[in-house]
Amino acid sequence: MGVSISHPDVDFETTSASQARVRSTITTAEPDEKVSFAFTIGRGDLLMRVGTTAGAQDIVADLRCSHGFHIVSFTPGVSTYYLEFGLPAIGKAGLRDFERVAAGRFEIDTPWVESELDLVRLQQSLNVVYAAVSTKRPRVIERRGDTSWSIRDYDYTDGPFNPLNGSTYTLTPSALTGEVTITANTALFTSLDVGMLLKLTHTGQYETASATAVDTTTDAIRVSGLDTSRRFTYAVTGSFTATVVLERSVGNELSYETVQTFTGAASGTYDDELDNQIIYYRLRVSAYTSGTVGLELRHSQGVTDGVARIFSVDADNQVTADVLSPFSKTSATTLWYMGAWAARFGWPAAVGMQDGRLALGRGDNYWLSAADDFESQLVGANDADAISRTLTGKMNSIAWLKGAKNLLAGTTGAEHIITAGEYSEILTPSTAFSRPVSSRGSAQAEACMIDTAVAFISRSRKRIYLAVPADGDGYQLIDLTRLHPDIGGASGFKEIAFQTEPHPRLWCVRNDGAIAVLLLVPEEEIVAWTRYTSTGATFESVAVIPAGVADDGVYFVTHRPDVSATDRYIEKLAPESFTDLEDAWRLQCAVEYSGAATTALTGLDHLEGEEVYVWGNGRQSGPYTVSSGAITCDYEVTYAVIGLLYEGKYKGPRITWGASAGTAVMQEKLIKILGLMLYRTPGGMIRIGQSFDADKMTGLEDRQTGLTYDSALQEWTEDKRLNVDGFSDPDARLHISMPGAGPATVLGLIPWTEASDR
Predict the structure, then answer these.
(1) Measured distance CA(509)–CA(541) in Å, rounded
(2) What is the pTM of this model?
(3) Where are the alpha helices (DSSP H) in 499-656?
(4) Is residue 594 within a helix (H) or strand (E), and if so which, with residue range?
(5) Taking the CB of residue 95, how many other CB atoms lie within 10 A of it?
(6) Residue 26: which H helix or E strand, with range?
């Protein structure tokens, strides 16, 4: 069977006459419990199947697992089940570190080091995410369920390639299929070539396949000419119970008919005597019961492009490679191409999507996959073929790619549109072109979509631009920071993400660890910035995930050095709305408790030694110091949020009114009374004054009688009028502090001021 096992590792080798498979019989006492298996594919592609009988796939249907790490979970439903891996293609593969993993938190190792994380570009398509960074081969992250994930290589096998070799150097393969050595007649290879594709062109056609299922076919050979030039050979090999047919299609590869049928091993020469006609031939398994069927077609006419991927560099003139498309000869050829992607040349640095194609970019080059086939890079002249182009204009490196109304490319010195014409036709090899639409230049940071527009960080990182479609196929740029040019701070912006619900906000992580938030409603010309900081914490990354409810999920990666010098936290922004006052989340790095009445609150190991507050049953208490991951609350709670206190602050603009003689900008002013339009705000959550000096601020509860603190606080949704303990000053401003663990919402402010006309 071509299998060698060194537990928990398995090596596979499939030939044209036999397929490598390994099967494990598993017995469980808990058939209705979910099980999870983790493993790595060290080389090649394997098919995993799980069934209630040997060889069946009624529990897990054939799952293609490429080079990379995988976690597969399923519920057997039976006490005995059969787990099987097979190598369907001719060649070698390796299964590594196979193990059953216990239920709990799943961790998947990624290939990127910390210094590369800011350079990783992502493009999602349903449950698949494509990832690109210039230092690594592109990866694919796949989600098949909450506990079934993969991170594998982007599995391109047919391109792209650099231009045809223009020298007299030759490459010679040792075999037509499987693992081969490819030898050059000069020093040609380096260690940086591992993973690179090689395409060798020989005269003649050779197509092969190894079949273990019905409707498996070889690729077609093309027969033309007359007399003996039309003859080709066929071979059906192996031990099997199946039916194989030789089929042909006239003039194209669309309408096949059967010309010969085989029920066992067979070989021979076929001459159709259809002179001067173009006919396509293939072998197909029309019925299958068991065994492995080897299929082979050979024709001396035409040419074959054989493709292999370098597995190892053995010498400067020799490599070991896995054949992906069979060679037709083992002779030397000067007709060869090196793959365009490798450590030697660089890997794609950006990824996007447009018109059913995956877009990848590096330097001033961009590639678009075949239509609706994101992992095919076979460049050709047909409309559905892959596309390879170079950006026009200055030599700038692509930093990001985004598919909006058109495909946009941000480079270090300009922004380019990649389009098919004025009326935005579908991109094809014959229509695709690019041109610059601005010269602002982009930072090495991911851009984000906002409807049909694209927001991106400028080359200086001090500004954020919005590229908005203009008339025709053009774009105009809007500077979103023009009203607040310093909002990026001294070190500028690092990362951005856009939230749609409940309000359109652009979250912008700054390099100093703060966050700038932009309320953005372009159709109403609303552009309003605010800054969000957290005492003792810095923000390193932000992501927005549409949640399908009232609020999008906004997630942050935070570093809290006072808590841990090395750990990072993933924290989610709490929903703005809440049903009951007790449910409001307004604490940071928080966890919740829900259950029987208790004073013992645990699960706080991540805040060991920190002072935390409790919002329990609609009341605030604290601070408490976390010890052994727990605190003891002053009162029993059935629902509580426990975390770090955050003080929201608002500082109003300079007051320009209140003087009888006109503007009061330069005059002494005093804020005497403040009207507050409140929404669902309990007592103790707001303090006001003309500074943030806590001793000089007034709280709502200071002017309210009848408040009790031994039950859920009363909430106000009404207008409140408060006296302000202020002082006269030319720069009198209103200051509002929200220091509590509960919610506070102010819908409007109405200050009464007294100005001196002297």
Answers:
(1) 6
(2) 0.87
(3) none
(4) strand 588-601
(5) 24
(6) strand 20-27
Q: Give the span between the Cα atoms of 517 and 540, in whole angstroms.
A: 15
Q: C-alpha distances in angstroms, 103 versus 11, 554, 690?
A: 28, 27, 55
What is the per-residue pLDDT for 201? 96
In the predicted model, residues of the chain with pLDDT beneath 50 are 702-708
Tokens 């013992």 sit on residue: 600
End-to-end CA distance of the chain: 101
CA–CA separation, 240 vs 242, rounded Å?
Answer: 6
DSSP-assigned letter for residue 674: E
State the virtual CA torsion across 294, 329, 178, 210 in degrees, nearest 10: -20
CB-neighbour burial class of residue 9 (10 A; exposed 0-12, middle 13-18, buried 19+): middle
Query: Tokens in use for 488?
Result: 């990026």
Residue type, 527: V
| Closest to 234 (Cα-Cα) out of 208, 256, 257, 203 | 208
Cβ-count burial 250-277 (b if 16+ within 10 Å, e if not): eeeeeebeeeeebeeeeeeebeeeeeee
The reported pLDDT for the residue numbered 704 is: 45
Measure the CA–CA gap between 321 and 70, rounded to whole angstroms: 24
Place of tokens 């005093």: 670
Cis-peptide into 88, omega within 30 deg: no
List pLDDT tens digits, range 496-523: 999 998 999 999 999 999 999 999 987 7
Cite the beta strand spans of 292-328 per DSSP E: 293-315, 318-325
**Pairing mode, if any, of strands 398-403 and 407-411?**
antiparallel
Closest-CA residue to 473 (of 515, 429, 427): 427
Between the CA of residue 401 and those of 118, 345, 364, 509, 696, what are the distances in Å? Answer: 15, 20, 12, 20, 52
C-alpha torsion 376→544→499→486, nearest 10: -100
- 574-584 b/e with 16+ CB inside 10 Å = b? bbeeeeebbbb
Q: Which of 46, 350, 88, 306 is nearest to 197 (CA)?
A: 306
Radius of gyration of the chain (CA): 33
Q: How distant, in Å, are the alpha carbons of 110, 432, 494, 519, 655 from that of 513?
A: 24, 41, 9, 20, 31
- Listing from the earlier edge strand, what are the strands of the sheet with 553-559? 538-545, 553-559, 569-572
Residue type, 401: L
